Structure formats: structure tokens, C-alpha cells
Amino acid sequence: MTMQNRLDEIRDGLLQKLKEATDKQHVEQLRTAILGRKGELTGILRTMGSLKPEERPAFGQKINQLRNELEQALDSAARTLEEKEKAARLKAETLDISIPGTRPELGAEHPLISTMNAIVDTFVSMGYSVAEGPEIELDHYNFELLNLPKDHPARDAQDTLYFSPNILLRTHTSPVQARTMLSQKPPIRIVCPGRTYRADEVDATHSPAFSQCEGLVIDEGVTMADLKGALASFATAMFGEDVKVRFRPSFFPFTEPSAEVDVTCSACKGKGCPKCKGTGWIEVLGAGMVNPKVLDMCGIDSKKYTGFAFGIGIERVAVLKYNIPDMRLLFENDARFLQQFGKGR
Amino acid sequence: MLMPMKWLQEYIDLDVKDVHAYAEAMIRCGTAVEAVHDLGAEVDKVVVGRILEVVKHPDSDHLSICQVDVGGEEPLQIVTGATNMTAGDYVPVALDGSHLPGGVKIKKGKLRGVVSNGMMCSGEELGVPAEVYPSNTDHGLLILQGEHTPGEDIKPVLGLDEQVVDFEILANRPDCLSILGLAHESAASVGGRMKDFEIKLKPMEGSVHDHVRIDVLDPDLCRRYTARVVKNIKIEPSPLWMRQYLHAAGVRPINNIVDITNFVMLEMGQPMHAFDLDSVAGRHIIVRRAGDTKQIRTLDGRDRELSPEMLVIADESGATGLAGVMGGEGSEITENTKLVLFESACFDGASIRRTGRALGMRTEAQARFEHGVNVHLVREALERAVQLVQELGAGEVVDGVIDIYPNPEPIPEVAAPVPYVQTLMGISVPPEEMAALLERLGIKTRIENNCLYCTPPVYRQDIRMGADIAEEVLRLYGYDKIPETHLRGSVTGGRKSATLNRSALLRPLLLGFGLYETVTYSFISPKWWDRLLLPEDAPERKAARIVNPIGEDYSVMRTTLIPSVLTTLATNFNRSRPAFGCFETGVRFLPKEVPLTELPEERPSLCLGAYGAGMDFYKVKGIVEAVFEKFGVKNVRYERSTAPYMHPGRGAVALADGRELAVLGQVHPDAAHNFELDTDTYVAEIDLKALEELSHPVGEAAAPARFPAVQRDMALVMEESVAVGDLMDDLKAAAGKLCQEVRLFDIYRGVPIQPGFKSVAVSVILQAADRTLTDAEIGAAFDKCLKAAKEKYNAVLRS
Question: Would you say the CATH fold of B414-455+465-479 matches that of B2-39+163-194?
């Protein structure tokens, strides 16, 4: 056998074996067997010493050529097998992506607090600041400064819980308005969120403890049209872009003129349905222009300034917004009720 | 206020085709409507019948067979069980297919084999009480009085064709608590011309002064007192039209004199009282404060305890009635009354209100005085009452009026500058148009120097300032025409409060820990203090108490939110929720003394609680630590809690800077049981005021160190009593400035550690900002840790 034949045989043999190789380890064994220190090709190279000097360069060149060729073949085979193995491994790692994720249970926001926050955010974005005050109040701030003197029948509308003849649970957040007017000069633009209390029995539509967000704006030239504009902004933020606001004449001791404020019924979009008793409107709040007597009592010149005030019942808004069937659910705190409010924006 | 539409039309020419449209128009102009009632709505196909013949039923002892003319060609045969009818009587007949109140349907049928083509009705079956339409007996058929046409609809005959609007009258409009007032309001809101309402009396004789003397001793509580006398009284039922109006307006007819007082009250809004003057001692009426009089008996037969400030009506024997609330039993009108004094007065509303409240009384007259009776119309109402006496022939009116009105009150002119009114309204209605609208309300207006000068009609006492004028103009102009505009002028920046900013940090954090946000009442049951195992002198029991709570369970203001949270946990536990956690923010009401003499401190608080698998002391502590971390609270220490509602070994108090920040841990099993929580229950209450004050901002940021940190682990064996938290603090201090953190990774008890001891494994992490640490530095820090552990806790390196 000539040298050439032998080299061809080595090459053909290796290429054939590489075709049959199934894993990378096998490829490396072949590499060692041919190119390793004791490998076949290495062995042939060692015989070079027995050649005549003039034959040696050609022989060496030939061997090196083959060596390079074989190394490339081995590397290529190794890479291919490596890719195959990786693909197989990744395939084996396939997961059932339909199985639910693992995570801690999340809590849920209470609808009253979320509603309150949403209302406050609406007004803060319009330049109103948040004012707060005590829940246990003096009769002076809760009633007298608001044009509700002692023994006035309009007090009947606000059945009051008392601690003493002059200390009571505030029946609205209006005392915060009175305190603000006494301590701050116009322009005033505030909202007063907070808990309020009345001696109402607990039932589906009444609660002795509830929440309000009242608003007060006092400046030169403030008008009832400004009030309507402010409440229209509130109504669209709370109930949707296509909601309209309607004013009906009413009476509150602390405002004159006064209005009951209705919004388009969300159930029928104003067409009339059982929810709105066929009127197409739902009453949501009371509002009006601050009574000049109130301004004067709180140290603001009623000849120079006008203002408006409104009182939003948070429970009422939440009940309407989420169609809550019974107000008691709001204070019962059953997780099955509350968790609904953690699912959505 | 129930207003029968027919009664309204006595005073106004108003053609109302659709009462609901009328009601809507009134609402739009500011008179709220609660409901519209149709008195005959349930009555259908009931006509007048004339009984032609009555014969006994052949097969019955108690039935009769009647032939009844109902206007048809042939009489109807009707079988009845009634016995009070005779041939010639007019009776209501429910025809075949008719309807009666209560959903009753009448059909023809047979009674004991005899055909009956309908039913003859009693008053009760038609919803007409005997005091409105009396029959010849209390039982049996309603026998109609007078002549009628057989076949005519029964409704007009019995006043069942009346529609009644139930108005909700607002506190500023007592004038609308009267039919006349509502007529004025209807004329302005809906249209229609007011009819003349003139009170003219026929000639009278005698003198009122011959019959009675009246003294008003306390004019501050009685601005006006008027009276007239009627003699030769003939007590009998009032006429049908008056009884029907009263009944439709919700007042029970009694007799002519009492009905007149009620009629005038409803018609003109003025409460009236009629005295049997022969029963008034000395025929002398004295209006005064009760003073020494301790007790009187009112005409409902009840004894009333008086206080000295209450206004009473007295005679020479002493106080007999409560002015403006209820008359005395002694001078009540009876069947034998011959001489009557009519009283029409203006008592002080606040005084009447205090008296009524103190005695727990709530009469119609009282409510009207509270809302304000019109001092100008007191005498007119009296005149109207005696005019009705003359018209009804109820007695002879004695000439002369007593009118005690020491300080006549003028009707003020109200100045309303046009720009002011336009600003309030937000609409530039021209002054002439304003004046025209005001004219509709009877408000006389002149315009001078761009100012409206308005004189309200005598019946409107609520119009006293410019803003009132703006409202009157606006409600007739139309609230719907107010445009929507946005505020102009100086811009203000909106700011949130500390409470809301705090909530914005806390809510997402706590929700992320799986806690539900909750809201409960701020007033709680005092029994909850017992459930919390609090001793009698516990500070939590010093709570503000509501004097008129809606119930004992809602009677004290909470001084801690813990019982509220426990109740919320119990609600969910008892509804089979295996695990649940929640939080609530609110205030704790902390009085300086009870009963309250000043406003209590309202300290904001966050309370959280949880039960169920996976919850333990360290989880709760972890949440509390996370809250502290979020607010940048530093150097928090924990001490064992001594709160009685806490598990003695698993309760802690968190302190920082010497202040108590929170109480946390496992609830005492007995306390948990008292709240129906028979499971391990954990709570924490954080003082948000302290949290706020101890909080720190994020401050300056530093770049992370570029040199490697070194971790050295050590396992130390020590007695069980050693507090690991304290040990870790001391190790950190001992390791010096290079120590970034001491981290606990294991606590081991058991072989080979001897009983009573534990092995605590910690990692000490060392790092310098400016260099890689040398072995010598690391070794020195490690040795200092070991030395401190040995010296302070007798802890040794585990071999």
C-alpha cells in the first residue's frame, strides 16, 4: 500500500465514522484516535525521519494538509452534534404553560377608598387642595357657622350624634370648610374628604357612618356656571364621558341659590328605566352658591367674594358606579365582595 | 304636604290635564314631589244605583234579592247580605267586571241559586271612611245622601275622583305648607291666574271683651296673639266638601269646629286652636312661661312634665295647655261646647321646638311653628276661621278681635345689585327680565342704579337678601339654562394632605402583602373592651361615649382599631375562609377626659390582622418592618408587649427614638376566642403620627462599592434565653465600620447541642468602599465578633 493510499484510507474512514457519530464524545474519541499524540496520523508523521531529506517537505506538507482537513471535519461534526444536543435538552425542558402561575395572593382595594381617591384626584388635578379636620367637632363649626343656629328645624335633616350639647360627630365635612375660611384668605379651592356620621339606622340604603368629599371655592366672580362646570368634570371623570349633569332648585342652609345635582342614569343612558324611576336621571349630590351669611360669619367679605360649595356622598357614588345592591356590603368587609375591586383599573 | 288637586283649584284657574306633567313642572322650579296619589285609582265600573225592590231570598235567612236601577233599560238583580237598605235608597253598585280597592274584582254569579249581577258596596269596600261619608248605620251598605242619577260614576259622588300631590316642602318654604301657598307657587311655576281670595264677614253683634280677657306675659316667645269668640255653638259634622278635602289631605274629620281649625291650617298654613271658653277659668287666657307649674294634662289625656322655660296657655286656675304644641284636656271642644274661643298666634319656633323635643312630642302645629308661622297672616287666618263658622252656620260670631301684636314687623325691601345677581347665577339675564320673573312670584321690583329693589309678597318670609333674589330669578329662568364654565382668575396649585400621601405609600405595599383594605364603623360596642381582656382601668377604656347612640353596639368611639380588625377577621373566618388578612386606616379617638369637655385627639392609625396557614409572628413582623422601611424609620427596637390582648410570649412593641411605634404579634387565644376567632390570629397596630414623625426621606444616593464584599459565617452556641436580635446588633457593632450586615441563616436545636442551648448561624458581611480587604482585617473583625459574643452572651464557636 502506498503512503497516499494509506492517507486516503484514514480520511475516508474518519469521514465515514463522523457521519455515524451520535454524540460529541464520540467525535472527540475519533479526534484522539487520529490526531492525538498516539493517533494514526501522528504515527505516520513520526515516520518522516526515515525518509530521504529531499522527500520530507512534500511529505510534511501533505500530512499537514490532511490534518487541517480532518480537524475542520471534526469541529464541524462536533458543532452540529452540540446544536442537536442543545435542541434536545431544551425540548426536554418544555413546560405546560397553561398551568397557573405561582404568586402570593394579592389584597384588594376597598371601593369606598378607591372612589374617594378618584374623586380627590379629579379635583386636585383642577387645582383644588385637600383640607382635613376632626371627626368629633364643635357644634359651632358643624352647624352655627353654616347658618344652622340652635333649634333650627333644618337641623332635622341631619340627625346628629352628640357627646355633649356642644360636641358632636360631624354630620358632614362642611366644618372643615368653615375652619378653612376662618384661617385662609381667598382664593380658596379645597376639597374635604372624610368620614361623617348621622343617627340613621343601618339598612340597605342608609349607614350611620359614611364618607363625604365636599368642595369649596371662593374667589372674586365665582358663579353657579363655574359650579356646574366643576361638577360636570367630576361626573365625566367618575361616570364616563357621555354623562350629563342637571341642576334642580333646592334648599340648603349654607348655600343660596342651592341645587340638587343629577347625572344621566348609567343603566339606561337617560332613556328612563326602573333604576332612575323612569326619569333618566340619578340624584348624586347637593350644591350651591355659598350663603353670604356663611361667608360673613367666617370672616370673608360677601360683597367682594362669591363662592360655591358641593357635597358628594362617597357611598352614593360607589353604589352607583359599581351597582352595589346593599350599602351594608361596604362595611361588612367580606373578602369575596372586596376581591372584586382588586380586579380592574 | 298632601295637596288635593281640586282643593288647589279653589284658588287658581289652572287647567291641569296631566297631573304628572304638573308635578314635573313644579319640581323643575324647586318644589319637590314625593308622589302623586289617585284616590280612586283602584275603583273602576262602580256606579250609583237606586234600589227599586227588596225581597227575601227563598233559600236563605240572611240574603236579600234586590232589583237595582243602574241607568240601564232593565234593572239589575243583585243578591246582598246587607240589611240596612230599603227600596228608594241610592247605593254604590259594583257592576260585573268592576274593580275595588285592594285588587278586588267583582263578577256576576249565583248566590244560593239566584243570579246576582254585581255587588252593592259598603263605604269600607270603596275606601271611604265613615267620618267622611257617614251612612245610616255603621255597618252594611253605604246609603248615599240626597238625590242622584242612577248609572252615574260613583267617584265624583264620594270624592274618589281626587288626585293628591304629595310635596316635599323644604325648610325655607313654610309658606308652601299650605294650599294657598302652593297655589301661589303653582301660578309662578306652571301658570294660571290666582282667583280672588277675600275674607268678608257678615254683620256681628256683642263684644269679644265681654267674654274673654287675654294677657301675653312673655311677648318674646309670642310675637302675636289673636282671638275671636263664637257663641251658641252647634257641634255637628262639617259639610261633605270640607270632610272630603280634609280626608284627601290626610286629616281625619271630627266635627265642624275642629275641622274648621284644621281646614284653615291646611289652607293658610296657620295652626289654630279652639277652646271651650266655658272651661277656661275666669275666662282669662294668659300666655306665659310655665315657671313653677310642674305638670299639665294635654288633650290626648297624657300628663306632661314641664320645665320653667316652656311656653304655656294658662287660665286663672293655672297652666292648661302647651302653647303651639297641644291644647289642654280641660278646655277641649266637646259635644256640649257652647262658647268657643278661636286662637291664632305666632309662637317662637325655637321655643316650641325645644318644648316638643323635651316632651318627645311631634304635632302638626308644632312642626309648623318650628318652620316659622307668618306673623303677618295670623289675623287673616282667624278671620277665615270665623268666616267659615258663619258659612257653616256653626255658631254666632261675636263682634271684635283681640290682636296682641306689640311690635309690628315691617316687610323689608331687599336690595340686589344686578351684577351680583348675575355673578351668582352665572348668566347675564337683563334686569328687566329678572323683574318680570320676580313679578310672577308676586315680588314687586323696581330697578334703580343697576340694582333691583324687591318687596316680597306678605306670604314669603324667606326672601331677605340678594342671594335669595338670585335664586328666585334663577329657578324661574331655568336651572337648565346655566352653562358649564371653568374657573378663571388666579391659579392655585392642588395639594394632597399628609393622610392621602401616606395612604398612597401604604396601600400598594399592604395590598402586595395580600392584605385586603377594609372600612368599619368608628363607633364600637363597649363590650369589645371586655373581649380584649382589658382591665377596668385600662387606658383603652377611656373612650368618648355618644349620648344618643343608635344602639349600644355603636356607642363608644374606638381608642384602638384592633377590635374592629378582629371583627373583620371573624366575619371572614366564620364564613369559612381558610386564610385572610386585612388592614384598615382610621383615627383613634383619645380623649383627655370623659365625658368629653373638649375635642379629643384624633390620632391616625393603621391596623392590620391575619389568620390562616402561612401566617406567623415573623410574617406580621416582616410586614411591620416593611412599613418602617418604606418610611425610612431607623433604629427600631422591639420589646415584649404587656398588652392583655396579646399572647404573653408572642407580642411585641416596636420603639424608635424612645417612642412607641407599633404593637404587634399574636392575639391572646382567649381574646381571639371572644371575637369568635378560634384560630391563631395576628395583629399589628401602627401609630401613623409617630411613623410620620420618625420617617426619613431617601436622602443622598451613593454609588455601589466597587471592591468585593467578604462573607464570613459563624455558628455560635448559646443558652436558649439569648435574644438573637440583640446578639446580631452586638455582632454588627463589634465588627466595626467595615461590617455591612449581619445576616441570620439558621437556628439549630438538638444533638449534638446540649438541651437548653441553641446554635445560631450568621453571616458577617464586610466591605470597604476604597479597597479590597486584607486577610488580617477580616480576621480581626471576626475575632472581635467572637469576643463580643463570648463576653456578653457566653456564646462560643460551635466545634
Answer: yes
> Residue B639 is inside which H or E element, if any?
strand B637-640
Q: What is the ipTM of this complex?
A: 0.87
Alpha helices in B614-705 (DSSP H): 617-630, 669-674, 688-694
Beta carbons of B583 and B562 less than 8 angstroms apart: no
Picking from A161, A246, A262, A310 by the largest number of B CB atoms within 10 A of its own CB, the best residue to mutate is A161
Measured in whole angstroms, how far is the alpha carbon of residue A333 from the centre of its chain? 21
Distance CA B677, CA B675 (A): 5
d(CA B400, CA B383): 11
CATH of domain B498-694: 3.30.930.10
Domain covering B2-39+163-194 in this structure, CATH number: 3.30.56.10
Are the C-beta atoms of residues B736 and B764 closer than 8 Å to each other? no
Of B474, B495, B599, the CB nearest to A134: B599
Digit-coded pLDDT (tens) for B182-209: 999 999 999 999 999 999 999 999 999 9
DSSP string, B510-523: HHHTTPEE----SE
Contact across the interface for A209 and B426, Cβ inside 8 Å: no
Report the C-alpha gap between B119 and A36 in whole angstroms.
125
Residues paired with B609 in a beta bridge: B582, B683
Stronger pLDDT, A43 or B203, i.e. the higher one? B203
- Alpha carbon distances (Å) from B500 to B464, B662, B693: 42, 20, 16
A246 to chain B: nearest residue by CA? B480
Check: CATH 3.30.70.380 for B710-797? yes
Q: Is the peptide bond before B591 cis (omega within 30 degrees of 0)?
A: no
Mean pLDDT, chain B, rounded, equals: 94
Give the Cα separation of B273 and B265 in Å (integer).
10
Q: For the residues A283-309, what does the mean pLDDT come to?
A: 96
* pLDDT value for A1: 63
Tell me how far apart the alpha carbons of residues B320 and B607 are, in angstroms, rounded to a whole number. 59
Residue of B nearest to A228 (CA): B484
Within 10 Å of residue B105's Cβ, how many Cβ atoms?
10
Every domain of chain B and the residues it spans: 2-39+163-194, 44-158, 208-404, 414-455+465-479, 498-694, 710-797
> Is A109 in Cβ contact with B507 (below 8 Å)?
yes
For residue A56, pLDDT over 90 is answered with: no
| Interface with B, mutate which of A123, A125, A137, A151 (most B CBs under 10 A) | A151
The percent of residues in chain A predicted with pLDDT above 90, rounded, is 64
Look up the CATH architecture of domain B414-455+465-479.
Answer: 2-Layer Sandwich (3.30)
**What's the CATH number for B44-158?**
2.40.50.140
User: Of B141, B1, B144, which is closest to residue B79 (Cα–Cα)?
Assistant: B141
Per-residue pLDDT tens digits for B524-566: 999 999 999 999 999 999 999 999 999 999 999 999 999 999 9
Query: What angle is formed at CA A158 by the lines to CA A153 and CA A161, rounded to 5 degrees?
Result: 115
pLDDT tens-place string over residues A218-244: 999 999 999 999 999 999 999 999 999
pLDDT for the residue A11: 87
State how far the Cα of B293 lies from the Cα of B784, in Å rounded to an integer.
91
Instruction: Identify the bridge partners of residue A289 per DSSP, sorted by sequence position.
Output: A308
Kindly give the pairing relationship between strand A255-264 and strand A245-252. Answer: antiparallel
Q: If one looks up domain B208-404 in CATH, what number appears?
A: 3.50.40.10
- B427 contact A CB<8A: yes
Q: Is B695 part of the contact surface with chain A (CB cutoff 8 Å)?
A: no
Average pLDDT over residues B265-289: 95
B334 residue type, one letter? T
Hey, what's the cell of B219? 311677648
Dump pLDDT digits (tens) for B574-631: 999 999 999 999 999 999 999 999 999 999 999 999 999 989 999 999 999 999 999 9
